[in-house]
Amino acid sequence: MEERVAADSNHALIRLERSGTGESEGPGCDALDYDTEVRHYREAFDQLSTHPWIDQDRIVIMGSSLGSTTAPLVAQGKPIAGVVVQGGGALTYFERMLHFDRLQLERQPEFRPEEIDAEMRRRMEFHRHYLLGKMEPAQIEAQIPALAGVWESLFGTSEAPHYGRPYRWHWQAAEKDWLSAWATLNVPVMVVYAEYEQFESRHGHRVIVDTVNRLRPGTATWVEIPQAGHGLRIYPNALSADAWEGGESRPNLFVDPVSE
């Protein structure tokens, strides 16, 4: 879809390979912290904005998933013409991760609504120590035995240490004020939301558009793709999306509005 956006909009498309990815040197994601990752994007922007293919008055930053959180941080103070994001919002990282947990419990195949309230309270307590208190999971379980087993039940813990990124990455993300970053950008913004998004909440996306339009009316655009999941494949229902089953590729639903 990225290639299609570049072709249909008649823009050059430049994508940074993260540290340790592809031909990029340095530590991989499992050792890369959030602040360093953002710094790399900003350094890449400074280099690439002087590339002969690039018109400095027409640079648009496009971020997807976690790239939606880094996009406004990369854009701050840079000469850009706009920002497009999809699959990520501007709530706190703490809220974001709790929403992951909520969806996981609500959409799991063995649905037990009578257990959700108690389990969410355990997870809120765990995340308070993990994300806000910057404690490692083993420390939390040692100090608070009642929270034993929470870590293994969370999304992303199968990719050690957490979604394949170090604890420090998540702790730094939890410190960020993404909404304030969006508020500083005096450029057009487009937010693309997938109805069956498996991770970020609708409100997380919507708060970007509502905040920007409240500060600078008419400069933020909302695009909602019905029945789409996080990767923008089309699913028959939310449960199928959460199981990643039966998805249909319809790239034009994203490519057309973004390239236009």
Overall geometry comes to globular
How many extended strands?
6
> Which runs of at least 5 residues are low in confidence (pLDDT < 50)?
none
Order of helices and strands: HHEHEHHHHHHEHEEHEH
Structural class: alpha/beta
Mean pLDDT across every amino acid position: 94
Q: N-to-C terminal Cα separation, in Å?
A: 14 Å
Number of helices: 12
Portion in strands: 5-15%
Identify the strand order in the major beta sheet.
1-2-3-4
Q: Measured on Cα atoms, how large is the radius of gyration?
A: 19 Å
What helical percentage do the residues reach?
40-55%
- Major beta-sheet overview: 4 strands, parallel
Tell me about this structure:
The two termini are 14 Å apart. The protein is globular. Helix content is 47%, strand content 10%. It is an alpha/beta fold and 260 residues long. The protein has twelve helices and six strands. Helix 10 (202-215) links the parallel strand 3 (189-194) and strand 4. The mean pLDDT is 94. The strands form two sheets. It has a four-stranded parallel sheet with strand order 1-2-3-4, with helices on both faces. Strands 5-6 form a two-stranded antiparallel sheet.
Question: Which key features would you list for this structure?
Answer:
alpha/beta, 10% strand, two-stranded antiparallel sheet, 4-stranded parallel beta sheet, 260 residues
Concise description?
This protein has helices at about 1-10, 35-50, 65-75, 95-105, 115-130, 135-145, 150-155, 165-175, 180-185, 200-215, 240-245, 250-260, and strands at about 60-65, 80-85, 190-195, 220-225, 235, 250. The two termini are about 15 Å apart.
